[in-house]
Amino acid sequence: MQREIVITPPRRALFGALGQLRALPGYGDLLYVLTLHRIRVRYKQSLLGPIWAVLQPLLLMLIFTVLFALVAPRMPSEGLPYPVFVYAAVLPWTYFSSAVAAATASLVGHTGLVTKVWFPREVLPLSYVTAGLFDLGLAALLLFGLMAWHGVSPGAQAVWAVPIVALIAAFALAVGLVTSAVQVRFRDIGIAVPLLLQVWMFLTPVVYPFRHVPERWRWLAGLNPMAGLIEGFRRVTVQNVAPDWGLLLVSAVATAVALPAAYLYFKAVDTTVADRV
Predict the structure, then answer these.
(1) Quick one: which of 138, 157, 184, 189 is 20 to 30 A from 6 by CA?
(2) What phi, psi does 50 have (nearest 5°)?
(3) How many CA within 13 A on the CB side of residue 55?
(4) How far apart are CA 135 and CA 39, in angstroms?
(5) Is 227 or 107 the better-scoring residue by pLDDT?
(6) 3-state SS string over 29-51?
(7) What is the C-alpha to C-alpha distance for residues 49 and 81, in angstroms, rounded to an integer?
(8) Where on the phi/psi map is residue 206: left (φ > 0), alpha (ψ -120 to 50), or beta?
(9) pTM score
(10) Using alpha carbons only, what angle is made at residue 178 by residues 59 and 108, rounded to the nearest 5 degrees?
(11) pLDDT tens profile 230-254
């Protein structure tokens, strides 16, 4: 039986996580370099370049529009043109799902770096989450174009989009920390995550408004942290109404609990990552 030698005891690593978190800002330059590298590599030798950032949410919007607004026009859209309604939700969801999927593979995708150089390894999944914000910004330009085309004007409530996006990024990081650490030991996670994200999307009010969920199931749907974030983003950007504060509070509390818990788990597993990756 092969012996496993842990240089830093997991218990010590767990209790030292707070100290490592305080030292994390000192690696801001590394995060900046890795984030910039992610963006450059993504579009290097690409024919369409940054257009790919817009294509994914655009194609999803077109598919949902054809299915739910043309083929079976029964899906409510809160008085908005359906393309605007659905794109305002597809936009943040695409960022979240792409960030989680990329962060999941961040450790196993950098074996040489992880095994040869020491640095806070949480910087790897974090760099994918921050790099995804660049794509989000590019894809948001199309949202502005759709709103202008259909005569939908942004209002004062749009200022809430920034903290909502910050919560989405924080929750994506929490999920990515856990899945990236688990994938080091169980590579099945890399296959399961895209499937789970597809299922998760249909459990989240992306193609339908939250109020369209049957009332007896609405409390359960509201426990989904992404429900309040996606619904909130759409409400403040294209509907010009305040977010559903109850839903958003659930999302904020879930993020506030999930992110520290995910970080502690990641740091506990971090002690054996170099041996397993």
Answers:
(1) 189
(2) -60, -10
(3) 5
(4) 9
(5) 227
(6) HHHHHHHHHHHHHHHCCCCCCCH
(7) 29
(8) alpha
(9) 0.87
(10) 80
(11) 999 999 999 989 999 999 999 999 9
